Amino acid sequence: MSGDPTGSTRPVTSSELLSVVAARELAGRRTVFAGIGLPTLATELARLTVAPGLEVVYESGVCGAHPSHLPETIADAVLITGAEAVVSMATLFGSVLQGGHIDVGFLGAAQIDRWGNLNTSVIGEWESPSVRLPGSGGAVEVMANAREVFVVMRRHTPRSFADVLDFCTTPGPDRALADGIRPLGAGVTRVITELGVLARAGAGDELRLVAVHPGVSVEQVRAATGWELKTADRLATTDPPTSAELRLLRDDVDPNRVYLR
Amino acid sequence: MSGDPTGSTRPVTSSELLSVVAARELAGRRTVFAGIGLPTLATELARLTVAPGLEVVYESGVCGAHPSHLPETIADAVLITGAEAVVSMATLFGSVLQGGHIDVGFLGAAQIDRWGNLNTSVIGEWESPSVRLPGSGGAVEVMANAREVFVVMRRHTPRSFADVLDFCTTPGPDRALADGIRPLGAGVTRVITELGVLARAGAGDELRLVAVHPGVSVEQVRAATGWELKTADRLATTDPPTSAELRLLRDDVDPNRVYLR
Amino acid sequence: MRGAVERTAGAGGVAGKVMPMREAVAAFVHDGDTVSLEGFTHLIPTAAGHEIIRQGRRDLTVVRMTADIVVDQMLAAGCVTRLVSSFVGNSSAGSLGELRRRIEHADPEPLAFEEYSHYGMVCRYVAGAQRLPFHPLRSYAGSDLPSVNPGIRKVTSPYPAADGSTEEIYVVPPVHPDVTFIHAQRADRRGNTQIWGLTGVQAEAVYAARKAVVVVEELVADEVIRADPNRTLVPAHAVDAVVLCPRGAHPSFAQGYYDRDNAFYRAWSAISKDPVRLRGWLEEWVYGTADHAAYVAKLGEEFWAGLAVGEAPSGPVDYGRRL
Amino acid sequence: MRGAVERTAGAGGVAGKVMPMREAVAAFVHDGDTVSLEGFTHLIPTAAGHEIIRQGRRDLTVVRMTADIVVDQMLAAGCVTRLVSSFVGNSSAGSLGELRRRIEHADPEPLAFEEYSHYGMVCRYVAGAQRLPFHPLRSYAGSDLPSVNPGIRKVTSPYPAADGSTEEIYVVPPVHPDVTFIHAQRADRRGNTQIWGLTGVQAEAVYAARKAVVVVEELVADEVIRADPNRTLVPAHAVDAVVLCPRGAHPSFAQGYYDRDNAFYRAWSAISKDPVRLRGWLEEWVYGTADHAAYVAKLGEEFWAGLAVGEAPSGPVDYGRRL
Fold first, then answer.
1. Is the pLDDT of residue B134 over 60?
2. 3-state secondary structure of D289
3. What's residue D1's pLDDT?
């Protein structure tokens, strides 16, 4: 593959690395609930590689989209035209998500803690916050109902990987159990960041560092994490994106580099 | 109008009388939940006379039907083609009916008592009935949610106008209150039979004879009723169908006499 | 508790979804199962019921809002020991003879019956589809139904009523059929299913079930479905098998395809009243036909011409495309 | 508790349903009202929000799942004292400056905020539409949201869980807006409303409200609606007013009519960050335009050409007719 004309020998960007790592984690999955941005790239790349039958469900109610252009929002008109189904919010959240049809949900957050609880509501006190964030959207529902949740965070800092959340908008299964309610999914099982991959198995387990990206040290990741981050017994180093993965991502998935910033 | 070629001088049948009386009761109503048969005739005649904007909603989910032929069932294909809306059962029962959009619901029953409670489940004991009847269908919901309910009974007998129901499938507001739940509608307000019209105002009130059809005596009605039937202070005699009403019913509503048996 | 993991669908499973009725019933209906057959007067999955009879399934719990002819036939064939329903009659055309014998006389054997109202059944499907422990509804207050059906219970609202008082409301439990069969006008090979005309409770019945089989008048190209995604009532992820079975809803109808066989509805009351005649009917029309294609052929083209309908196209809407 | 009696519709009221936006807002929005504006990214009733601003309504409670640009504008115009929402952000394009000033600094005045999740809001509309005292959902277990929102409560299921234990579930209360505004592609003069593409929570928001106003791109002949009754998402009986207002959803989009103005979404973060600039924008584009037609004209045909979409017809289905 030397002399590749599409430039797969260009340096790999952080966005590319995150997309490739997230795509690989989707191997064998059938349904994914995805937002726009890196999850779009990851799911589209997965469909071309490790999960050919993957159905992407959008919070807007689109199932089985076949967009003519890379979508700019989860409700982009190009996701609707040519889709296999469009359902109401009541059906989307009630029957599809709460009904148990989503294998993997992608979520983001301003803060995440070691149990995979998320804050997207406020920095500071809820009653008089220093920063008012957008809130849950459907995140509470994705966490409560998807079989597992992947979090992709571009920036890995002690402020965002917090020892104690300012506010828990979206609780993982451990908090649900403490509230007396049996959770339906495993909560956050993978956190993919600019530095590496954190993982946990489900209720009772905390996030551990399972892989560092090439050139990143364990100490770097621990220093960037707001709690005493544990490391898996067998720590891996992320396999760099293959030229095939990069070519698909750059040429087919996002040729105009909308999200491949 | 002498020499009317459509035969409006023919003797008035019981079906015609019941249809005309029921149609008049729909004056000023906007939405009616109707089954097939006499209610169809009554609502269609009302649309042509006292309730021109009346919208008929069918249990099958059809709103604003404009059928090419007289429908043979509540789900007849001719009700769907050309209708203004078709909704799912969840929307029909949840938002339209329970949501409070039905002014008048038509119901039938094997047995009715003085409070307008209905039995459509069994004759005899529920566990081993002598006759198993069809059951509620949507009758429980119509009674609980329509503002008022009209009952049309071709036959007026002590067995069907029962002192004590064999089983109460569909309770009126008095039984609902006794069960600790505030009813949303008035329950049965009109019962139109081959002999006359019974009426009640709502919770706390019992059915009273308010009109007898021409040629029917109060004693006849009382003898045909299984409880000590009270009579309204001002008992009326039903105005016979006008020639205009008969002409519309016979020529426009049911020219093939499908329900005008 | 059902979960997405139980579905057959997904990567690699697409081609395997389209199968003959015989295979679908063999794969998804087992003795002792809870089987939902839905379709409110329109699109009743009769052919599925007949194949269940042919394969001799036993001890089924049948869940169906309007238990009508196909249920009476399954009862007569000895497939069913328990019925969950809100209307047990032959539409407005009369009685179900076998059902009445079973309930009134335990003849030839008893039938356990869970009686609900229509909206109670709808709410059971909705709760099943949405994995809710219960669904509230403003029905049943003062009814005798809760006294004969322990499934109908009460909950106290945690919010005060408008007048400040405490409010109670009845609730029903979810239903999770082992398998739901529905009939539809068309689907693609992945199971994206489009229905028009009366849509009933089909989507909820599919989502409530552990497995779902969609029986269709037409199997269409992906492009047909994708030209009108709002028409897709049941998305592929909820469907395990797609069975092509034209005229499989007879004697009910398929809007735009064929009309209702009202004469047969009227005839059924007499057929089913006589157990010998009813069993003769099953011998001739179900056991005596290899499959629904044989049943359709036996009825004959002249018969089907009598149920033919004319065209009434909907007209398109414009989904638009990016320029 | 709302009832059908409150509706304007019905006999004799048909002709009176079609009215200009000015009249609809004057008739159906009063100071202190609870106003729902729904449309999930698609078909946002922006023009309705602008007319509420022009008419200077005060002390409104606004109910909207995704509180975005139109809400930020209504906040800046001083119409709103309370917000009920599940997402308060400028889509994925940035922040709402006025909303953040109100919440973070009570600048220029405090904003009461009831925070839910998306499905919590959906369930509030469903409960409102269906006159339920509460709606259960499998959300909120372990969340801090119930601690800041007393509307989110718990109920114990009267049915044992699969393992025999007692099961609790969170519930939300119904919402009954005084009026709901939605935007749609088309309706007839009676208010039968057809929507395609994303349908969001519009039908439930209409049914939950005491009054409902449907704003449409096109007012169409009865025959257009009746040719495709399954496309009618909101039947006439639930609608009190129909307002013809082409391009009334800008900067959001109307599937098949015009595309989303993504540039304006991106620009709004900067506009709204500066309260002086934001108020200047309102002066020029809302107070400075007599109505939405003037706003549309001010944007200019060249601008609209940039949002034009090509055709992608759905293709018809056949409803059939009796021969």
1. yes
2. coil
3. 32
Q: Is the pLDDT of residue A243 over 90?
A: yes
Main-chain phi, psi angles of B51, to 5 degrees: -140, 70
Tell me whether the omega of the peptide bond preceding residue D251 falls within 30 degrees of 0, making it cis.
Answer: yes
Model ipTM? 0.96
Please answer yes or no on whether D311 and C320 come within 8 Å at the CB atom: yes
Q: Which tokens in the block code for residue C50?
A: 């007949």
Which entry of A59, A141, A148, A245 is annotated as an active-site residue?
A59
By the 8 A CB rule, do B26 and B43 touch? yes
CA-to-CA distance for B93 and C320, rounded, in angstroms? 34
What one-letter code names the amino acid at A257? Answer: R
- The residue type of A55 is E
Determine the Cα–Cα distance for residues B42 and B48; give it in Å rounded to an integer.
10
Write the burial class of residue A153 (CB in 10 Å: 0-12 exposed, 13-18 middle, 19+ buried). Answer: buried
Query: In chain C, what residues touch A100 (CB-CB under 8 Å)?
Result: 1-4, 131
Give the model's pLDDT for residue A7.
Answer: 53
For B193-232, how does the pLDDT look when each residue is reduced to its tens digit (9 = 90+)?
999 999 999 889 999 999 999 999 999 999 999 999 999 9
pLDDT at D92 > cutoff 90: no
DSSP string over A197-248: EEE--STT---EEEEE-TT--HHHHHHTSSS--EEEEEEEEPPPPPHHHHHI
**In 3D, which of C189, C169, C207, C162 has the Cα closest to residue C38?**
C207
* Among A243, A261, A231, CA closest to A18: A261
CA–CA distances in Å: residue C76 to residues A38, C53, C109, C128, D301: 58, 9, 10, 29, 70
CB atoms within 10 A of CB D303: 12
How open is the CA angle B56-D23-D20, to the nearest 5 degrees? 75
Which of the other chains make 3 or more beta carbon contacts under 8 angstroms with chain C? A, B, D
| Three-class DSSP category at B148 | strand
- Subunits with 3+ Cβ pairs within 8 Å of B are C, D
Three-class SS state of C164: coil
Tens-digit pLDDT profile for residues B11-42? 999 999 999 999 999 999 999 998 888 999 99
Q: Which of B61, B63, B62 is nearest to B89 (CA)?
A: B61
The dihedral built from the CA positions of residue C50, C53, C57 and C60, taken in this order, carries a sign that is positive
Name chain D contacts of B96, Cβ cutoff 8 Å: 207, 235, 237
CA distance D241 to D215: 8
Of A102, A194, A100, nearest to A151 by C-alpha is A194
Work out the angle at residue A50's Cα, subtended by the Cα atoms of residues A48 and A53, and round it to the nearest 5 degrees: 70
Placement of tokens 């009346």 in the chain: B54
